[in-house]
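Aim 2, interim progress: modelling of the flavin mononucleotide-bound target.
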Amino acid sequence: MPFIKLEKCTRCLKCVKDCPAQAITIETGEIADTCIHCGHCVAICPEMAVRPDFGDVFLLQPHTVTPKDFRNLTSEIRSCRSYLPKDVPDAVLLQLVDNMKHYPSANNARSLQISVVRSKEKVKLLNDLTEEALIKMFSFITSPWVSPFIRIFAPSINISKLKRYKASFIEKQKTNDSQICHHAPAVLLFHGEVSNSEMAEADANIWATYTSIYANTLGLNTCFNGFIVKAMGKKSKLNSHFKVPSNHKVYASLLVGYPKVKYRNEASRQSPIVVLL
Ligand SMILES: Cc1cc2nc3c(=O)[nH]c(=O)nc-3n(C[C@H](O)[C@H](O)[C@H](O)COP(=O)(O)O)c2cc1C
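Predicted structure of the complex, ligand included:
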């Protein structure tokens, strides 16, 4: 629970008014257990009289990112599938993970864990086991016994595409090439407890997205990887190899490394359809 130091409090009521759970009784300094641990009371207090439930309070530094900077940065960020054979220092990988404390989490539980796969051997293992798992999965789905049912009951699954993926994974296996991890020096796995709510998945994708942007400011490039997420589902045999607990599922994964290629042009893409109401 956050804690109000009443002796520092000037009763400005900023925390009371901003609390989304109406959990603060300023007269007594009590915070009810309806508190959702968002930390707004800590963030808004001009006297730093509200202490967080974890760690300390620091004065925010004004950022210098202009809208133009942000637009330029995001238009420059592309999925990287070609990396320099250069390790990302552990300190930098840990910096990426440390900054995740600033990213939003659906119920403030912040229960995601991150496995950082960053040795050549482990990344290759992740690549190979993912390929193997997907070849098995796609062979089953595209088999003559199963595919007719898939066509009827799950028509959105593109059987021909899965067949193409399966063939190309088998081809890559023969040449010992890396179609999943693209020889990235590091892969981040965002995993959390399997639950019926989709919140862990939302958190994982948000954290991975912010991480991708932050990584790019550090000269790194990234690539989301849906194949790994598909292969490392609930009770996947791969999980134990990468310290993913048995009750966890990988909800997002991000390849990280120094890019071998540099894109110089902004390729126009369609903006989403917008409806102004
Ligand atoms: C959720 C998600 C999963 C993705 N999975 C993969 C993947 O498994 N392998 C891959 O090479 N690219 C993957 N991508 C990258 C997309 O293919 C890529 O975003 C798209 O081609 C557009 O290119 P850009 O990211 O350079 O703009 C994924 C992207 C997202 C957002």
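The domain at 3-51 is CATH 3.30.70.20 (Alpha-Beta Plaits). The pocket of flavin mononucleotide is lined by residues 78-79, 81, 223-227 (CB under 6 Å).
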